[in-house]
Amino acid sequence: LAKTTQPISMDSYEGQEVNITCSHNNIATNDYITWYQQFPSQGPRFIIQGYKTKVTNEVASLFIPADRKSSTLSLPRVSLSDTAVYYCLVGDMLANSGYALNFGKGTSLLVTP
Amino acid sequence: EPEVTQTPSHQVTQMGQEVILRCVPISNHLYFYWYRQILGQKVEFLVSFYNNEISEKSEIFDDQFSVERPDGSNFTLKIRSTKLEDSAMYFCASGEGLTIQYFGAGTRLSVL
Fold first, then answer.
1. Is residue B35 pLDDT above 90, yes or no?
2. Cβ contact B80:B111 at 8 Å
3. In which band, very low, low, confident or very high, does the pLDDT at A1 lie, cut at 50, 70 and 90?
4. CA-based max dimension of chain B
5. Quick one: pLDDT at residue B1?
6. Chain B residue with the nearest C-alpha to that of A99
7. CB of A70 within 8 A of CB of A47?
8. Angle at B100 between CA A7 and CA B104, to 5 degrees
9. CB contact at 8 A, B17 and B112
């Protein structure tokens, strides 16, 4: 599994755009980049997944440069309810058996008024 | 929206007792997982289950742990003789593919 590095914590005010960058220098050809969100006392929740360039859904955007050695999760206009831990994971989508997600410590985002 | 359901939400047990944590994965999913999270620590993988057998397990998943899919809908985690250090949130997850996994709300296990 490729090792990922992301900031331990970030702070933001409501209404701002938040960008969380994750480094994954050893990403392999078959690896996809996936982000999860976790609120206190809840299970992680899938946010977005991408392979290269840009992916956008109703929750977030994911920017992946051409070398794929990093990725940036962008949360537009955050609200207080976006306060959570955000995890960047990199893994092989083509493995043919169960897949252990390695969550790491994630980035703890605190949104304040 | 389909979701993974876990019961009970909180389980209190005495050290040395057996516990069974239950999960109902999303119905058309093929891959099933258990994770745990000790308070204040990261989410840790325990075991994955595919095609009616364990496909991968971590060092945490020792002989005290077992998993079963007793029927077409349930997926259980059994801890045979609980220890104090087994106290944690236990999350069940399921997925159609591999890296997108859908998690339940968890069972908080308290071992006294």
1. yes
2. no
3. low
4. 38
5. 76
6. B98
7. no
8. 90
9. no
CA separation for the pair A28, A52 (Å, rounded)? 12
- Count CB neighbours of B16 within 10 A: 10
Q: In sequence order, which residues have a C-beta less than 8 Å from that of residue B71 and are 6 or more positions away?
A: none
CA nearest to A32 within chain B: B99
Look at residue B101 and tell me whether its pLDDT is greater than 70. yes
Pairing mode, if any, of strands A107-112 and B53-57?
Answer: unpaired
CA distance B80 to B66: 8
Among the partner-chain residues A45, A97, A101, the one whose CB lies closest to the CB of B45 is A101
Taking contacts as CB-CB distances below 8 angstroms, the residues of chain A near B54 are: 98
pLDDT band at residue B28, thresholds of 50, 70 and 90? confident
3-state helix/strand/coil string of B31-44 = EEEEEEECCCCCCE
Residue B79 CA from chain centroid, whole number: 10
Q: CA end-to-end span of chain A, whole Å?
A: 38
Amino acid code (one letter) for A87: Y
Structure token pair of residue A28: 């392999």
* pLDDT recorded at residue B98: 66
Is A93's pLDDT higher than 90?
no
Nearest to A44 among B43, B54, B98 (CB): B43
pLDDT score for A2: 67
Torsion of CA B51, B64, B26, A85, to 10 degrees: -120
Considering only CB atoms, A43 lies closest to which of B44, B99, B104, namely B104
